[in-house]
Amino acid sequence: MEDFTAGTTQSQPTRRQSTLGAEWDIRIKQLVADWGAAKSPDLIEEIIITALKMARDKMGTGDLKLMNRSLKELRYAAKMFSGYRQFRKVCVFGSARTPPSEAQYKVAEDFARKMVAHNYMVITGGGDGIMGAAQRGAGREHSFGLNIRLPFEQRANETIHGDPKLVNFNYFFTRKLNFVKETHAFALFPGGFGTMDEGFEVLTLMQTGKARIIPVVLLDKPGGTYWETWMKFLTEHLFKLGYVSSEDFHFFKIVPNVDEAIREILHFYSVYQSSRWVGERLVIRMSHKLPKKAIAELNQTFADIVRTGEIVQGSAFPQEKNEAEMAGSDQHSDPKFVPLREVEEASTRS
């Protein structure tokens, strides 16, 4: 899968970082080999080492239950999503309390329907309101529901209820991780604490370089002022007080209608496909080659963030080709059709 951290996960050393001593390390290595873990066996070995260390850390049962359940939830969700890597996905956030009679409900339904027409799948929190509207528009076949177990309010909507692509999470943090990890764009509709929480977390992760930069569009009903009011708070308070910078406002876009939202997402991926770090180089995958003039302009415009050398256009690094063969190529990131740009940058933000 594409690395949602913009390469910071895959650029970490793959050699084992922990040990239980030579004797136990050999036994664990043999266990993993006997089980038949052909893919990244060193990482499986380290997971086992971590679990065994927990057994001697004298931590409470509550901590063990939290870690155990979290790993199970992450594993199950990853297994479910693995069958749909060939599709890009858009994640829709919005209030579960929005009734079908509200105009923004119909906007969310229309947005999801049109995104599916462009070969996208739709991820929501699996609840009613805006989430239910988006999944009604997308249809069951093209929907994912990441539901959360709550004592009140949240339940699976009728479109996704009972579908294998519905995952029920016990923890918000594992659920939110999957929202960010599995999607290629976000669409936010008016909502309450949950929508604000999810929206600000996405922006924070991109701002701090902990998640790849992807489109974030903010939609409302025709003539609605929800996001304009939100924007006024950001500019008159957060910005004026120095808590955010002017560059941070480029992480999202308030759009007037569904067509503009779709245009923004599709345009983002019209040339760019994905990015990742390979050692000290930031590699940007593109759908087609750029002319030499464009490369020259990039070098002139972004010279201040290039550590050494220059921005160049080339082919995949050997280690990338090997990883792609092991992981299996996604339809939208097949290395045979994706020239690479090798950029030595000080940060993923440009």
What does this structure look like?
The protein has 350 residues and is of the alpha/beta class. Helix content is 42%, strand content 14%. It has helices at 22-35, 41-56, 61-81, 103-117, 130-138, 172-182, 193-207, 226-239, 258-268, 292-301, 318-327, and strands at 88-93, 120-124, 143-148, 166-169, 185-188, 216-218, 253-254, 272-278, 281-286, 312-314, 340-343. Helix 1 packs across helix 2. Mean pLDDT is 87; it is low at 326-350.
Order of helices and strands: HHHEHEHEEHEHEHEHEEHEHE
Tell me the total number of β-strands: 11
Residue-averaged pLDDT: 87
> In percent, how helical is the residue content?
40-55%
Largest sheet: 7 strands, parallel
Shape: globular
The computed structural class is alpha/beta
Number of separate helices: 11
Topology, element by element:
Layout: H1 22-35, H2 41-56, H3 61-81, E1 88-93, H4 103-117, E2 120-124, H5 130-138, E3 143-148, E4 166-169, H6 172-182, E5 185-188, H7 193-207, E6 216-218, H8 226-239, E7 253-254, H9 258-268, E8 272-278, E9 281-286, H10 292-301, E10 312-314, H11 318-327, E11 340-343
Parallel strand pairs: 1-2, 1-5, 2-3, 3-4, 5-6, 6-7
Antiparallel strand pairs: 8-9, 9-11, 10-11
Helix pairs in contact: 1-2, 3-6, 4-5, 4-9
